[in-house]
Specification:
Layout (H helix, E strand, L loop, with lengths): L11 E3 L5 H12 L4 E5 L3 H13 L4 E5 L5 H15 L4 E4 L14 H29 L2 E6 L3 H4 L5 H21 L4 E8 L26 H13 L7 E4 L7
Parallel strand pairs: 1-2, 1-4, 2-3, 4-5, 5-6, 6-7
Helix pairs in contact: 1-2, 1-7, 3-4, 4-6
């Protein structure tokens, strides 16, 4: 992975940071020198393994259990990170679920659960860290979106609409937080090889323009660029092998 640099290794929080994209992102932030709070809901072993991998590279990380869709848990995550490392300068809102439903089968329960995990968690964590960022005069809010926000995707109406809402939230923070040198951007991956795909949910070959799925590390490269670049805000970076072009 190409190495980029930060003027200072600001403490970071990564929701859903123990597995898949979250693990790759946590490792990429540690590569920049940032101490990382690796959040998880139930897979403690995965979060600990990610922290151990960071420590093996000479970095600092702590696992923090929290269901960030709940206000108390989101606040507890940020406080744990702050207590361990100091004021938070980077927050990556990666926690998310993708419930696959036929258009005629999606339920209000699917909608509420998806929005709680994909959207409310991002709001709670972002609100909890922007005070730190304002005091630091530096901040990076990053939101993990999806091409489904623009194309509708194939998962479900709740999933596609949650990702569109997430990008709307990102635009609001980008617009309002510029005076404090706080940026907000989104990353929109498509067909990345993580645990979200299994034998029942695999992309057909015609959906893979480059003939393969993306790697979590390739998404993490985009994350490093966003974190290191202070002159970009309000943008959605496509990591989709050209499936969606801007």
């Amino acid at each position: 992975m190409a190495t980029m640099t930060l003027e200072k290794p600001y403490p970071a929080v990564v929701t859903g940071g123990g597995r898949g994209l979250g693990r790759a992102i946590s490792l990429a932030l540690a590569e920049l020198g940032c101490p990382v709070a690796v959040n998880y809901v139930s897979d403690e072993d995965a979060a600990k393994r990610t922290c151990e991998a960071i420590a093996a590279q000479g970095g600092r990380a702590i696992p923090v259990q929290a269901d960030v869709s709940r206000p108390h848990d989101a606040a507890r995550l940020v406080e744990a990170a702050r207590s361990a490392f100091g004021p938070i300068g980077i927050a990556v809102n990666n926690a998310g679920i993708a419930i696959q439903r036929d258009v005629f089968a999606a339920s209000i329960e699917d909608f509420d659960t998806t929005f709680a995990v994909n959207v409310r968690s991002a709001f709670l964590v972002s609100q909890a860290v922007i005070g730190d960022m304002r005091e630091l005069g530096f901040g990076r809010l990053v939101f993990l979106s999806s091409n489904a926000a623009r194309t509708g995707g194939s998962m479900s109406a709740p999933y596609a609409s949650s990702k569109a809402a997430l990008e709307g939230m990102m635009h609001h923070y980008a617009q309002r937080l510029m005076p404090w040198t706080i940026t907000a951007n989104a990353i929109s991956p498509s067909y990345i090889a993580t645990e979200i795909f299994d034998d029942k949910v695999m992309p057909p070959s015609d959906k893979l323009p480059m003939g393969r799925m993306g790697k979590p590390e390739e998404v993490a490269m985009a994350l490093q660029m966003i974190v290191c670049c202070g002159y970009m805000t309000g943008q959605t970076i496509q990591v989709s092998a050209g499936r969606y072009m801007t």
